[in-house]
């Protein structure tokens, strides 16, 4: 148990709490401590009965059944893996900026979920984070199932097509990808590469609650002279290679 505790404490702070909540809330529903229907997003109940907790619980809840258990574990792994990579990579030392990204993505996903009558928001939220990671590491070579390899830039769309083939739906993945793209475009692509106006900036109050742990200018509100493109360390020994496929062996990290 001490090994598990040590591993859990080694997970970056924001990812740690998100990961823990994404385990606790589904099991609360699974064990019947709270009716699982009270954890899902029903727009009419949010607006007419002011059940304002639903957008939050719908982001953390996922039904655990024999048919959905594997999908839940895979997405839980995606959450841990790519959120950790972002928090310790592109957002290293800048927790306020990372919290702002999560809040922006979450608000966009909640609005989309309310408009499209979506019940669960866990997969779109995780995919939005995965998409942002892929944009920061677009030249990194990743490995998918059956030994296929491609640039990380294509990973969110490969997962979308793969889940559509095995599950017959891609709405959750597409929503997450589009929201992740919107954040990355407004925060980085448009102001830094295209010279446009900076529409997004981390609010100052977040820096009071999540101060930077390194020196330098706070946040991404003011575009730097060139866009930083952090690179992931190689996982398999080869330069620039990242073995995504091994990630499905949960607990092997």
Automatic annotation (TrEMBL):
<dbReference type="InterPro" id="IPR035952">
    <property type="entry name" value="Rhomboid-like_sf"/>
</dbReference>
<dbReference type="InterPro" id="IPR007599">
    <property type="entry name" value="DER1"/>
</dbReference>
<feature type="transmembrane region" description="Helical">
    <location>
        <begin position="56"/>
        <end position="78"/>
    </location>
</feature>
<comment type="similarity">
    <text>Belongs to the derlin family.</text>
</comment>
<dbReference type="GO" id="GO:0010498">
    <property type="term" value="P:proteasomal protein catabolic process"/>
</dbReference>
<feature type="transmembrane region" description="Helical">
    <location>
        <begin position="120"/>
        <end position="136"/>
    </location>
</feature>
<keyword id="KW-0472">Membrane</keyword>
<keyword id="KW-0256">Endoplasmic reticulum</keyword>
<keyword id="KW-0812">Transmembrane</keyword>
<dbReference type="GO" id="GO:0005789">
    <property type="term" value="C:endoplasmic reticulum membrane"/>
</dbReference>
<comment type="function">
    <text>Functional component of endoplasmic reticulum-associated degradation (ERAD) for misfolded lumenal proteins. May act by forming a channel that allows the retrotranslocation of misfolded proteins into the cytosol where they are ubiquitinated and degraded by the proteasome.</text>
</comment>
<feature type="transmembrane region" description="Helical">
    <location>
        <begin position="17"/>
        <end position="36"/>
    </location>
</feature>
<feature type="transmembrane region" description="Helical">
    <location>
        <begin position="156"/>
        <end position="179"/>
    </location>
</feature>
<feature type="transmembrane region" description="Helical">
    <location>
        <begin position="98"/>
        <end position="115"/>
    </location>
</feature>
<keyword id="KW-1133">Transmembrane helix</keyword>
<dbReference type="Pfam" id="PF04511">
    <property type="entry name" value="DER1"/>
</dbReference>
<protein>
    <recommendedName>
        <fullName>Derlin</fullName>
    </recommendedName>
</protein>
<dbReference type="GO" id="GO:0033554">
    <property type="term" value="P:cellular response to stress"/>
</dbReference>
